[in-house]
């Protein structure tokens, strides 16, 4: 199959397939004399596994490392995908059931206890850290925490002031295009700022921006500087990362 056919089949863009080829994640088995990429059934099977990993939140770098291992076993990977997706479905079903009951309670159709209202929620551990560890690995998160822990009170205060200054600058730009030169310059400052505290790849930076919107607590905190800032930062961070890949 040609690259356009594969893109339509998998529901992804041609640009994504080109990017996978460029970073060594998925090379087409053959290239014609005219330079056209040709994908085999084996390539499609590998692409399917890559997309399963993506659905579960794995960064591209980690996916490449996993599928490139000499001992990589496709069936074992599929069994893992199956297990993790079932767990994800179970969590979503519990949340949906709680939401449906809450809606009936609000309409006066049923009585709902306070305990029932929170069925399915579990914030016994830090969800931000869990997500960061899943996406970027323990080493980056531990390094960031160690860096912050080593700072004095004054240094931590200066760090917070620097962070807030960038937020305010981005808030002033949030009604412009995330791809504008001003927005990209400001979001570049944010990327450099984050890397003062830890080590964030471009892919991690892009994923973090998506989390700003997906997790309402991130959104709420960021949008204190201006409504819609979280979504603006997500788009600007995505643009910044894509330009530099």
TrEMBL record:
Name used for this protein in its record: MerR family transcriptional regulator
Lineage top rank: taxon: Bacteria
Pfam families xrefs: MerR_1 (PF13411), TipAS (PF07739)
The keyword DNA-binding belongs to this UniProt entry's keyword annotation: yes
Species per Swiss-Prot/TrEMBL record: Paenibacillus cookii
Gene3D superfamilies per the UniProt record, alphabetical: 1.10.1660.10, Antibiotic binding domain of TipA-like multidrug resistance regulators (1.10.490.50)
UniProt entry keywords in alphabetical sequence: Activator, Coiled coil, DNA-binding, Transcription, Transcription regulation
Keyword Nucleotidyltransferase: no
Coiled coil: 82-116
Domain HTH merR-type: 1-69
InterPro entries, A to Z: DNA-bd_dom_put_sf, MerR-type_HTH_dom, MerR_fam, TipA-like_antibiotic-bd, TipAS_dom
UniProt xrefs under SUPFAM superfamilies: Antibiotic binding domain of TipA-like multidrug resistance regulators (SSF89082), Putative DNA-binding domain (SSF46955)
